[in-house]
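thioredoxin-dependent peroxiredoxin
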Amino acid sequence: MATRRTGDDAPDFRAASHTGQVVHLSDYRGRTVVLFFYPRDESPVCTKEVCAFRDAYEEFVRAGAVVIGVSSDSVDSHQQFARQHRLPFVLISDSGGEIRSDYGIRRTFGLLPGRTTFVIDREGTIRHVFSGQFVANRHVEEAMGMVHRLAAESAPSDDE
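Structure:
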């Protein structure tokens, strides 16, 4: 499957989260979703990326966005990772790689699970895609820029 692109419908999924709840993307219809895929809990670059999303979390929330992290790690691994780094957003386990496959995320160098961030609008359409294996902070910057643009698009104008 080719990587999902801007303008594509975001594939729905059903996955276990570190909080014990089952998460469906469709649960967030009507809200902007930042869905970021990262290779592995506790690796240096992944930890940097996840903590960057944590540090920007309140700004994402103020702009009306939900943040969801996805890796193939187990729910137990996610629980420990979230607790250790005080993560305020949901981490979901894609242990079989189905979600990653549905989004068309390829491995880097044929080895590492890809690092890709999607911003999905209120209607479930992918509005922004950013991939970059070794530029963790840029994922947050890219996502934040699009989240702010979407918030501005949905803000009522002075004429209304």
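The longest strand covers residues 65-71.
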